[in-house]
User: Fold these one by one.
Assistant:
Number 1:
Amino acid sequence: MDRNSLTFQFLKNPFTVGACCPSSPFLAQEITSFTGLENVSSIVELGPGTGALTGAILKKKAPDARFFAVELNVSVLETFRKNFPEVKVYNESAVNLPEIARKEGLARVDTIISGLPWALFPDALQNELLSAITSTLAGDGWFCTFSYIHCPLLPAGRLFRKKLDENFTRVETSSVVWKNLPPAFVYRCRKCS
Ligand SMILES: C[S@@+](CC[C@H](N)C(=O)[O-])C[C@H]1O[C@@H](n2cnc3c(N)ncnc32)[C@H](O)[C@@H]1O
């Protein structure tokens, strides 16, 4: 098995990688299918892994929109860089998003798309990440992330949903994407209505 694949890295680091296989093109389509993504001027992807959602973002974004990614796992990053050599990716924790955005010369980012495995994260890390995200997101920006269908049944998944409601004024959920392993749905969140 390829040591830089998401599956190998999941077996090695299950609590940070959080998925045994990359998201399906159907989930990638769902997470990028909101009105306006094609018009925003800056997009960040958190936890891109090997890039299962990245192709859909590249397809949808405006040609001149700024786009970069932040990925913690150095091994999947190697595969990501091979798959998407044109995308700038930082090998850091998404907790550092405000500093990374500043380095990119961006005061705020219009859209943040996350593939982070929230339900596996402890309370303190969920707080740190949400604080980094909400302080970087533009006032009318969108934060989109996905959850596996079973996660709202787990305490950390329930906690995450509660935190979304506390941190955003609007939280929408998509219908379930059954053609994904496991099936998943998307949270779309906004700070203002
Ligand atoms: C569930 S996988 C999703 C990968 C890909 N986005 C997909 O949908 O197939 C989660 C990814 O988030 C990365 N990750 C976990 N914690 C992170 C953090 N604090 N900062 C940045 N990336 C992180 C993992 O290394 C992994 O690649």
Number 2:
Amino acid sequence: MRELSMHLMDIIENSIKADADLVIITIEENKAENNLTITVKDDGKGMDKEFLQRVFDPFVTSRTTRRVGLGLPLLKAAAERCGGKVEITSAPNLGTQVKACFQHQHIDRAPMGNLAETLTAVIVGNPKVDFVYTHITPKGRYVLDTRIIKETLDGINISHPKVVEWIKKNIAEGLKKINGGVDE
Ligand SMILES: Nc1ncnc2c1ncn2[C@@H]1O[C@H](COP(=O)(O)OP(=O)(O)OP(=O)(O)O)[C@@H](O)[C@H]1O
Ligand SMILES: [Mg+2]
């Protein structure tokens, strides 16, 4: 089963390919209410209505290297396998929001995977893009905003090994505090 963090990376990559400057990632999980929602919102080039209606079709892609686009169809399959769904809203030149809902406790819900590793890789690999990552659980909320980090770094590159380690640790410890992103 493909981990949710890998699906998340796919949706974020779509935003980056759409020339987003800011990607807002929100993960909300609540075991008691059996909800797990992952939302990725970007300010990229968006999609028109006609394209959006066909976007879950694997043969719909703006890729030029191969003729199929699998990111969104695979995400949809992963959500529907556990009683969830994917909703996309988009407007040309304004941006796109992809919201994927999963039943948290469903036996077929894919495991979360390593969010700290995945998100750090995406952030560091795309230094020109900003990310706001919010993770919400009944225990609290964790927020990482690369705009604030970059301001604090004052010119030091975000891909500096010390910074990379710091980001990864900050996410891992932040999630631990709110008991987020864990599968048991
Ligand atoms: N956030 C987005 N903003 C603008 N267009 C998007 C966005 N996400 C997806 N799309 C459009 O939908 C198409 C299908 O996306 P999907 O992720 O399913 O496949 P892909 O990105 O083309 O290929 P793959 O994910 O397999 O590398 C993309 O090619 C792109 O044109
Ligand atoms: Mg994709």
Number 3:
Amino acid sequence: MKILFSCLLLFLITDMLYAQPKWPRLTYRDDPATTIAMAWSGTPGTVYYDTIDHGTNFNQYAQSKTVDRTTTHKAYNHHFVRLTNLTPAKVYYFVIQYNVSATSARYSFQTLSDDPNQPMSFISGGDSRKALNFLGLGDPACWGNGCRETRQDLNRIVKKIRPDFVAFTGDYIRNFDVRFIVDSEEDWEDWFDDWMLATGPDNRLIPIIHALGNHEDAADLDLLFDVSNTDIYYATNFGGNLFRFYTLNSEPADVCADVIQKNWLINDLQQHSTPSNTPYWKIVQFHQPMIPHAEYAARTDMIDCWASEFEQYGVRLVCESHTHVMKTTYPVAYDATATTSYNGLVRKDTTGAVFIGDGSWGAPPRDAYPPIPNVTRDVEKTSGFFFVNVNQSRIQIQGIVPYADSIANIVQQLDDIQGTPLAAGTPLWRVGNGSQSFIIPNYSTITAVNKIAKQEKRATLMPNPATDIVTLQFKEMPTEAVTIEIYDARGKKCRSYANVQEQYFRLDVSTLCSGVNFINIVSKDDVESHKLIIVR
Ligand SMILES: [Fe+2]
């Protein structure tokens, strides 16, 4: 007995010291051109990284970073390392060194370009939870090979087509059901195991931007993935000003009553709709759909309190989830005067947003209920997700469906070119009444380019990057007082100075977060925005 106990103890200690870090994964907390947030579970360690591949020889890597944060959640420890000041559009290689000399496998990721001329592609999808079947009650049978197997197949497709990132619209696992409470620890283990199937054959990791669903808690996304905002709403620019990507939290029962989120959203949309600071595109994702097609009623609170803002500030693509179908709409926007509408939403080709969804990354697909709304372009009961390719003049959308035996035909992508078109052989869904691809044209591209090109900045920031003091230097003495506002990368206002009328205005930035911040000069006619990098 003593020997058995000793062996068991030895095994546990050995496992603790030598077990490989589990489930390496990536997300963005900040500018995806210059930062990455890494996570893994189990064994603690140090990340060694470089733009040169040194294999598993950790001491040859030029840079290293110790753990910034550790959490304990769902039966594991999770370790987070936040890398900053990275070079845009570069492949980085890294290992996790643990227990003096042991290292993980060598992994890689690619920082995104900050040049809006470079296209970008991402996958939008959600609802990867397993089905519930209990004494004949619960979800209908899963589609294809079964819920978990379909999730795995879709992850294998991510691996093959190698998008620049994944935008995940929630419902990762099933942690609660009205019939009984389910312990979700094993569900999360399975989810992480399955997500590893999206890792490239060269150990390339694909970052995820996380949205909150109703089957997990905000704490799960914070403690498992190190998301940048514990209330799960945030926004980040991609490709410089190619597009600004918003993640919203649709879990409050009434988003109109969630005034903090709504004010943040409107403020951020305003800040990114000025002549000198307008991205080519604004894209939004959230979990519960404004325009559902199965099981649930439309969220009229979201239509009332978000839809008009989407049109006013030029949101042209909305990614939804939750009802387990594949759907696309025409460009739609709110119109209170319309005599025929879908809860106030009507088709508006040049100013509306296209809604895609609704979360079918393995969760049991549902029958679309009749009648199909007249704003709907297409809907089908099937599993899948969307491939979205963005350049300055258009967004191209293609639906992907894991038809049986089709994954082997997809050509494995191995290049490091951002915005690569969809891999040959990818099985496509008919996204629009028979068509396998549709385009959202950018009706405002020429205006946006001209405005950005014509606008000459009235001030500069010195130095930039800065550490503690930065001077806002106007080319000429302002003829009227302006307001100086400082925003963090998520669009949260950190500080404001009213009635500034000095040619050289000193700002103490020593208490601001390192990374990307924005300094806005607000006058009565314009808002001029400057990106400020803070390094420490
Ligand atoms: Fe859901």
Number 4:
Amino acid sequence: MAKFVLIGSGLAGGLLAAYLGRRGYDVDLYERRADPREANIVGGRSINLAISTRGIHALEKLGIADEALQHAIPMRGRMIHDKSGDMHFAPYDVDPKKCINSIGRAGLNTTVIEAAQRYPNVRVHFNHKCTDVDLDEAVAHLETESGQLTVRGGAVIGVDGAFSAVRQSMQMQISGFEYDESYLAHGYKELTIPPGPDGSWPMEKNALHIWPRKSFMMIALPNPDGSFTCTLFWEFEGARSFATTKTNDDVRRFFGEEFPDAVPLMPTLLEDFRQNPTGSLVTIRCAPWYYRNKVCLLGDAAHAVVPFYGQGMNAAFEDCVVLDECLETFSNDRERAFAEYFSRRKENADALADLAIGNFIEMRDKTASKTFRAKKKLDHVLEAALPGIYLPLYTMVTFTRIPYAQAARRARFQDRIVYGGLVALSILLIAMLLFRSLHALTVMSDR
Ligand SMILES: Cc1cc2nc3c(=O)[nH]c(=O)nc-3n(C[C@H](O)[C@H](O)[C@H](O)COP(=O)(O)OP(=O)(O)OC[C@H]3O[C@@H](n4cnc5c(N)ncnc54)[C@H](O)[C@@H]3O)c2cc1C
């Protein structure tokens, strides 16, 4: 059977190696970092993240969902914190059993790598950094502690994240390769709310907490040890921004003004703010995701999205399922399998990229408004009244495996019907009121 060289053993790389290993392929997985089980390195990405139906399905298909989710914390809705410290809970779905799950990135990464390593035909090599790939030969050039290394596979798969070296090689070697990257004006910084003195959670445990502040926001996800990991999404530049918040007093003033209820829970705020890096948020679109039967991209390497729908990893896991299905269907024609995988995923990755940016505006700005809350309630009423017919967008994206593009189209259609209906109803009510007023006036003038 053909050999696959995988570059990157992040979340998707580990899972894909397990899928390929199960299918009997020879797999060599090369990761630039050290083994995450030997050193606590997660570096540059969130400490915890939300996994939902699509991601869980991919784990289930490999039989590792229970193992992966054993320490995950269900989050049943959004807990909105306003500036006065008041909180409102908005469930994610009309069905209280539907929840997203906060899961530790490092633990999940370890689970998928170990799942891959259970197959004797999968080998994982840490401290191997890919510098470039020769596409025609399916040869990857790697840097190791002891020097340069060249490895050849039947195919090389780039699962090396948003700043993929494999994708860069495709950009350089494929004429007409389409590439677009766009950065948000916002960066992010992770901060900590430690556990309460008795090891309990100092805020509601089963919720994703949001402090929406129009142009920026902070969120917090629970961890199993009683702590929360907060992420501040804030403008890089501007009058009030990361750039202008330099001193401890600046940080104290900003947090005191904007997140007064969180500050007493954040004893290490000043150190965290100073020491933790400020990350950037990028959307990457490219095409094609494959080159002949030699090279393929998967996960963030193919389609990095901003994190506001909590779907980047879920989508990357869904990629693994689809690529596995395509390799099964076209087991004798790998180029066809890659082409089919690309055509099934590309439109959906593009749709997710747009949805994720849209959800940033929803989370930071609209979640605080009464109209938004009314719209969510209406969504839930319609979902309960029309089961299987009306599905809110969030439900389709998070709690089903309806392809993202189809979910987006269906939500637009539903909105047109619902809002069109509401407008028609309003016009009818106004017309009835006018008619009654006119009628009353006529009766009075007749007297
Ligand atoms: C702040 C934040 C919060 C997020 N929250 C969520 C969430 O709640 N839910 C969700 O579904 N998604 C979330 N995401 C998105 C999620 O992190 C990514 O979509 C997911 O990590 C993609 O997995 P990946 O394996 O494709 O890439 P990565 O996880 O980035 O893994 C890439 C791997 O490749 C390795 N690598 C890179 N370059 C090389 C090289 N040259 N040679 C060898 N190895 C290399 C890296 O070291 C890494 O191990 C979030 C992202 C951010 C930034």
